[in-house]
Write a structure and sequence with these properties.
Order of helices and strands: EEEHHEEEEHHEEEHHEEH
Distance between the termini: 23 Å
Number of domains: 1
Radius of gyration: 18 Å
Oligomer: single chain
Helix content: 25-40%
Largest sheet: 7 strands, antiparallel
Number of helices: 7
Length: 303
Amino acid sequence: MKYVIYQASRKGGRPYNEDRVAYAYTQDALVMVLADGMGGHSHGEVASQLTVQVITSLFQSRANPTLPELSSFLLDGIYAAHDAINEYALRKRMTDPPRTTCVVCVVQKGMACWAHVGDSRLYHFSRRDALFRTHDHSAVQQLFDEGVISEAEMATHPDRNKLYNSVGGYMLPDIELEQPTRLHEGDVLLMCTDGVWPELAPKEMLATLRAYPLERAVKHMMDHAEFRAGQYGDNLSVVAMRYGEERFDADELLMGDDLGLDGFTTQLEKLGGKDSARPLTTDQELDQAMADIQLALAKYGKS
């Protein structure tokens, strides 16, 4: 499988970063995960960190070297992350469990399949068109669906941060799962948090992706989003993959066929990016978080 992948995360105008991004791969399969810890609840960064670690760990246990069933993996991964977050909250005696958004995408055998919870988005672009974006689980998305506001107004509406669905919390997440989609040469799958998408129209994203190699395109988009959001802008994170050959002269880019690894590799954006300001936990708490991950994975098994 030949592809190019790039991820980045910035704290924007916030004092610390509650976003987390990750990807893991074998020779024949790839999973990308993005989570945005919900700032209205305590320890959102714990929820997002547990989510990306649980899902990438489950991928490593099941991909041999491909996943036997994409939809089951996506559902099991998000539910396992939900259990791990709530188990962590129970052991820490938190009055309110932390919560996070989540979007997960798996690519193998020329197909992509994804699922999401909340308002972190996945976009699917061809070389010429914006083909798809996920449907936000938010108050402003409902207003848009009802024709009350325009899509442009979603980015500035006072209720834009009100979500009705999350990973972690007292209710099971309502996971929106898409059917597997065939990928074509040059297609881009781009996942981003709400620090990015309100500032960039899909046509701007597409134009940038057509003009630049993937890494440079993502950096340009994040620069523009961060500038437009200003000093009080949200955390912003992206993980993107271009399927097939990268048709640019960019020797530094990472090509999927050139990884040269028979086993697994996981790339985690450590603690949400280089400019995170707040540590996730103490060493003891991190050990407990890892124990919660193993507990959640044990509930869903390896098959």
